[in-house]
DNA sequence: TAAAAATACTCCATAGGTATTTTAT
DNA sequence: ATAAAATACCTATGGAGTATTTTTA
């Protein structure tokens, strides 16, 4: 009869590569782990591990059992998370990943609010680009991710938080300053500064422009929105700035002219994501509501 | 710490509705089950069961844990199935469901072949309509289903076995007999006899016709292809007959005229389905190959 | 021959059984 | 009052520890 304990030990063995280290990781002794792995092999009637001078290597069957075992152990954890959420929601550790083009603008308002609302919640933040966040989320290193939708795959669920439009940022003396809005077509004649590759915001900005013709992209690619804004302020070109960055990046010193686009673009959709199998969906949905509120309050 | 044992007992309790019967189902005594359920509640810190004079009722949290627990137990079973398949493939019980418009034509050739190839395989057959087969498959009462693709949902995987074209069957003296093929458009002027509702073949036949105009459906709806053919032979109308039924239903006594359609229709696609989480995919894929072969041999 | 895993054996935690009490209607 | 579940208590299984042997490159 297969037990969770056996699956735990086998997956630890697959990760550690040898019995002694795996046993240490499980806080038991090597013979204890050996025995359970043997019992599992016996119970399944299949050899799962090849023992050699240089440690333990999974057989093909072993790999498959580890793969399935990991999923099962995750589901069991999800039950425990779910129960914890039922017992006392919004307590304990919560690992939230955010993309760099949201973090600096939303978190300064969000974190104090969350700490006030849920004093027992221990928020661990991690700022990375979409790809890495999704990997971390899928592999259980994160509980939540805050990023721009949509994301592919049906193993993740999301709540839409708000829409974040693009504004045009230009140097103060720029012709764009003369009108109340900037025509989308006018961007084609400008040197457009964007973020470096890997930022989803870069692709979204390009998508907005490409709707209206070729992009005359500047030679420099910024590593952050803050840098990008500095480049614009220095007269190197113009850029598309997400609305949520306006308050912090625009400043009040007149070094930047900011105008809305005509016609108004739909902008990027910001969402909160979690694993479909997560046990804390109810909490996450409530959190999504709070984040929406904080963002709305921020704009007023 | 949650254990599989505790999940098993809790799901048994949810199904039985009271502790004594649940315990009996688990082949243990009532106190043993009571203890484990209590330990689970204690471990999760959540009340899962409401105890009353009339037995046990799950709380909302209990329902959720049962739901998740069932999935976990299924996955554990899948590991065991997978291992069994590794150890000695094609042995033991295999529950195969087939739709009635495939079974009678494929199984008479398939069953002896499978028995010869895999003498240790114990095939249990079940003939039902698509909807019921899919339910049974999803709920684990079947291991495999043999039916017409596509089917909705990503919880099932399939292998395409072969294409099964439609032929036109008419009474011997019918004008259709004069030509080598029947024009699809000509069907609109005929009384078209079809199976009763619920048979996917009925919908597929209607789809083929609807490509080329309205259907003049006869008043009778047959409960099986065999009946349908009898009705056609009696001169009540014409029908669309799947190619795989030809050999058995056409007979050689000249009571039926069978002609291909022009233009040739793609026909229905026959596939073998299993749960995505099944542990015996390798065997199932090999079985799919065998079925394809048997069908191909049947046509020659 | 040296590192790694398996075996031998002992101990203790825990699952399960029997008898009985408590609870709920 | 009575069926149902919980509790008390005992037993047996099995998981883990220590010491040691066997395996393998």
List keywords for this structure.
homodimer, 300 residues, Arc Repressor Mutant, subunit A, D-Maltodextrin-Binding Protein, domain 2, 13 strands, 44% helix, DNA-binding
Can you characterise this structure?
- 2 copies of one chain form a homodimer.
- Chain A is an alpha/beta fold and 300 residues long.
- In chain A, the strands form 4 sheets. Chain A has a 5-stranded mixed sheet with strand order 4-3-5-13-6, with helices on both faces. In chain A, strands 8-12-7-11 form a 4-stranded mixed sheet, with helices on one face. Chain A has a two-stranded antiparallel ribbon with strand order 1-2.
- In chain A, α1 packs across α2 and α1 packs across α3.
- The N and C termini of chain A lie far apart (61 Å).
- Chain A binds a DNA duplex (25 and 25 nucleotides) through α3.
Task: Put the structure in a nutshell.
The structure is a homodimer of 300-residue chains. Chain A is an alpha/beta fold.
Give the SSE map.
The structure is a homodimer of 300-residue chains.
Chain A: H1 4-16, H2 19-25, H3 30-44, E1 49-52, E2 55-58, H4 60-87, E3 92-98, H5 103-117, E4 121-127, H6 130-138, E5 144-149, E6 156-164, E7 166-170, E8 182-183, E9 192-195, H7 200-210, E10 217-222, H8 225-233, E11 239-242, H9 246-250, E12 257-262, E13 268-275, H10 281-299
Parallel strand pairs in A: 3-4, 3-5, 8-12, 9-10
Antiparallel strand pairs in A: 1-2, 5-13, 6-13, 7-11, 7-12
The first copy, chain A, binds a DNA duplex (25 and 25 nucleotides) through residues 5, 18-20, 28-32, 34-36, 38-39, 51-56.
């Amino acid at each position: 009869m297969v037990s969770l304990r056996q699956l735990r030990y086998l997956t630890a063995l697959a990760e550690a590569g040898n019995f002694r280290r795996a046993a240490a990781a499980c806080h038991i002794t090597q013979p204890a782990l050996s025995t359970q792995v043997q019992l599992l092999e016996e119970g399944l009637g299949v050899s799962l591990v090849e023992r050699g001078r240089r440690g333990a290597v999974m057989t093909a069957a072993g790999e498959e059992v580890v793969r399935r075992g990991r999923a099962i152990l995750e589901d069991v954890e999800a039950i425990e998370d779910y129960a914890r959420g039922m017992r006392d929601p919004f307590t304990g550790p919560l690992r939230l990943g955010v993309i760099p083009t949201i973090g600096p603008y939303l978190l300064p308002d969000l974190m104090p609010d969350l700490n006030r609302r849920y004093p027992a919640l221990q928020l661990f933040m991690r700022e990375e680009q979409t790809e890495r966040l999704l990997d971390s989320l899928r592999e259980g290193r994160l509980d939540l991710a805050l990023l721009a939708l949509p994301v592919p795959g049906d193993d993740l669920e999301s709540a839409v938080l708000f829409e974040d439009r693009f504004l045009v940022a230009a140097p103060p003396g720029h012709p764009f300053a003369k009108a109340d809005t900037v025509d989308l077509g006018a961007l084609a004649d400008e040197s457009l500064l964007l973020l470096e590759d890997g930022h989803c915001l870069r692709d979204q900005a390009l998508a907005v422009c490409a709707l209206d013709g070729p992009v005359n992209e500047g030679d420099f690619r910024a590593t952050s929105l803050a840098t990008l804004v500095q480049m614009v302020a220095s007269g190197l070109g113009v850029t598309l700035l997400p609305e949520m960055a306006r308050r912090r990046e625009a400043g009040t010193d007149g070094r930047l002219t900011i105008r809305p686009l005509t016609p108004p673009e739909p902008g990027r959709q910001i969402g909160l994501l979690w694993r479909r199998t997560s046990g804390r969906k109810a909490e996450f949905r409530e959190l999504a509501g709070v984040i929406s509120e904080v963002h709305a309050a921020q704009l007023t």
